[in-house]
Fold this protein.
Amino acid sequence: MTTSEIKNVQGIAAIEALLAAEYGIAGKILALPGEHDLNFRIQASDGRAFLLKLHALGAPEELDMQIAVLDHLAREATELPVAKALPSRSGASFTRVEFNGERVARLLTWLPGETWARAANRSSNSVETLGALLGKLDRSLAGFSHPGTRREYAWDIARAEMHLANVDLIEGMEKRRAVRAILEHFVSTVLPRLKACPRQVIHNDANDYNVLVGADGCVSGLLDFGDMVESNRVVEVAVASAYALIGSPDPIGAIARLAGGYHGVNPLGETEAELIFDLVRTRYAVSMCMAARQIRDNPENTYLLVSQEDVWRELRRLEQENRPFAIARLRDACGFAPIPKAARVVRWLESNAHDFSGVIKPRIARPKPAVFDFSANSSGTWAGLDKDVAQARIEAHIHAEGADFGLGLYGEDRAVYKGDAYQATASLRRTIHLGIDLFAPANEPVHAPFAGKVAFYHDDAVPYGFGPTILLEHRTGEGDAFWTLYGHSASRLSIGQPVARGEAFAAMGNRAENGGWVPHLHFQIVTDHLGLEGRMHGVGVKEQWQVWREISPDPSVVLGLSVPASVIVERDKAFLVRERQRRIGRSLSIAYGSAPLKIVAGEGAYLIDDEGTRWLDMVNNVCHVGHCHPRVVKAAQMQIARLNTNSRYLHDSLVEYSRRLAALFPDPLNVCFFVNSGSEANDLAIRLARAYTGNRDVITVDHAYHGHLTSLIDVSPYKFAGKGGEGRPAHVRVAEIPDLYRGRYRYGDTDAGRKYAEDVKRQIDALAAEGRKPALFFSEGILGTGGQLVLPEGYLRGAYAHVRAAGGLCLADEVQVGFGRVGSHMWAHETQGVVPDIVTMGKPIGNGHPMAAVVTTEAIAAAFANGMEYFNTFGGNPVSAEIGLAVLDIIRDERLMHHCAVVGNRLMDGARELASRHTIIGDVRGYGLFNGIELVRDRDTLEPAAAELDFVITEMKERHRILLSSEGPQHNVLKIKPPAPFSADDCDRFLEALDAVLAQVKAA
Ligand SMILES: Cc1ncc(COP(=O)(O)O)c(C=O)c1O
């Protein structure tokens, strides 16, 4: 019986009876296509969906293998989106049924999604998620074995050599020749290396009808384990790639994405990465041989002929790819250096550069170049400029600068490259300059920087081409061959001829002979000419820059110029995320991880992204006087141009700054220490307190954060009691958080401050019971990580009294909240009417410049000066001092403290008005522009509305272009601490947006 026969009423009735008898399920039945097995979609009356498979009893071992693998995956990899087998009434994962002969019935869960072949929402992300799914699957299959997988299977491309016998069955000479060449290459080159690669059971058929794509464009399922085989693991990647690249404008890009996704969860080895490209080609060759055999045995099968058109088309596209370049891209996708010898070549150049000759005008010791900006976004456009005009402009600029020659930059993204030669693939153009241009009049001699021999010479003789191009071959001390390339330069040398260091072996061509360009030398280093020899590209594809920059590294190392001759190539966000994950420690998260921002500029309270969108920044208290405040920028530029050195020399700015900073505190806080970060300031504070008191223990407030140094993780419950934390160290005591909203003593309790301070006393008593005393009590003037909490009246007064009575010192951490942010005072602790023994400052102190400070008393500073010097390399350098002074001037001149008070009150009044309409707002608090809005699901139980807050933050960003973040132990406090220039208009815009977003929360 075939699927079409089953569609008749009788057949359907038989299936219904089977489902009822074996599985107790009733529902709608839809017959699906299938080659050997009969497949049905079952829509059960209870809403569930299933796939019913009626297997033909071909090879019992293979069928058993398919049953066993789903059992294995159901046990070992529950999260994988593969079907799960439903047990029949008797508890078996399959049953034997009579269906026009004996068959095996299996009922599987239905996987959601559209087949890859039909999914309209596919993207490069789909390809990456497919790779990741296969990587996870193979990790789990590595522990699976079954006799059915140990087969000599014609679809196992690791055995592709068996198909050499079928090549002659292929119709068409060109196809036969291509397939034979691939299979012979497989036997001679691929197979010997493949033998060293890991082997395991693989799915082996992630084709476009076996892969499902979900509504979000990510891969949502994988079907059909009937082609499983024990083979080389990397074959899995190659088979899937052969389908995933179909129709892609950049086939190697698609393979690289898939391999990268796989590698991210199941790392591939270097040899595996290098073999993928050849294995994909092999898969196509095998497919063509198999089809030829099937067509011979079954000539009326027209479906095969149609699908083979796809295969041939895609294979031909792959055959046009540059193989070494494809391999370099796949190495890169799997985290390996694209060109392994590139780093060795650059190292050799760097260590021998002192001995190189100048490439042009070698007799001038320090030639002066005039730099040109040929980038696509340069102000004076060059693209399409008349050649005479361009030449005159270049000559005039060199003349005006009094320069020895003109300079065109490496890495520049240019719009000047016209013509088909620069079209790399259907969608990718070459635009990034791989060399450095040196402009001088035609016939200027070109010298060899070091000895070599003429390796290649080619004249492409097309407009916008290189014109005559010479490659000299060189070798590093370790024997790696590499080349220097001289474009647009005529020469009468013959191939193989040696060239001495400094020899004038060529000359700059004129416009008639150099591709029509203004006379110049294009100088490039080549670590791998990709088989292109004299046709080597001088311009690369931006999206492939990480590979091109290894093929042609920055030639500055050879030229030794007096100005930068290269630029950073700007890349898209997806690349930057991937590269960050590879190069930067992953314990640093990315803001708005699922849709990160690429911020390229700042102005006042706004951040500007790479597309020019302006984002209202309500998070950054570091750029306190406003992003890129011109007075801060100027102060930094002026001083860095004059002097930057350590603070052991006398300097007016430092002494002036220490006087100005100390003047912001009452007596006896008169002595400053200058450091580089809030953490360093707090670490020094602990040392000061220990030196002065002779005690070691520290008391800190619950949920506080005081810095990232080891000593400060110890006093930061936010860290040591959180993820990855090692718990409270023995020398630290934690005082109860004085939270007036959800703590033990709440708003309305006028004695709450004293009561919370009692817990500080309890910690001191606990220390005393062990015969110990506190060295230091840490607190902020408003609690940041604690949830933007305003301290209860009298809290610090009470706590300080207890600590001091026990012989300890009291520290105010003003790293977050200092410099007038609280509006009423310069320092948040002043709102509590106390004078600390030590104050630490950071973040806003330098408006983003890394500096920080400690202010303390003469007595404490004296106790610390015990003979051991305190030297801090960067702390208090003249640039920092000038920046610090500029920040203080701006706070004074722009009346920023008052501004924080006025706008902060406007913001809190507005938020309280919103609270009258949105019950989700449980509390609005803060001083000046340091505020918290706490969200709760219920104003009585105070159940935290953390998920709702996440939604609010995302919507405020996505819909209203406002950047905010969350805070507090329950992650339900909207944290507000914008740059101080945040205006009344910004405030109103924020309130209006918040109103709208909270209405959405309510509706949801
Ligand atoms: C209250 C407080 N203290 C200290 C620090 C540490 O400062 P830094 O990151 O400059 O080392 C921070 C940083 O977030 C902080 O919030």
Residues 189 and 954 are 52 Å apart (CA to CA).
